[in-house]
Fold:
Amino acid sequence: MSGRVEGKVAFITGAARGQGRAHAVRLAQEGADIIAIDICKQIASVQIPLSTPEDLAETADLVKGHNRDTAWFSILDGEWPPIRAAFQAWLAPENFDATGSQRRSLAEIRASLVGG
Structure:
């Protein structure tokens, strides 16, 4: 299903479960490209179970096939700068042709900027 956000990019934190997962699925169904991030590990000071890599993979499976491109990350603060640079290059106007199609995928750009 395409719709209100077709061709837009949605940046979703906490995407592995709950509301984050629900937003990722719905926005993908509406045509948005998804950038999904979750910590996917337990933090000692948090008593309830947090998300896992398997949770994020399940969300990715639910979104698959609904949109043009999706990026899934479990990252820490220190890992963000090169990923941010790749996102900026991916979302830059010059990465899209006159019809709005991307020229280079996020995976291609990440590989060229940070070695994969």
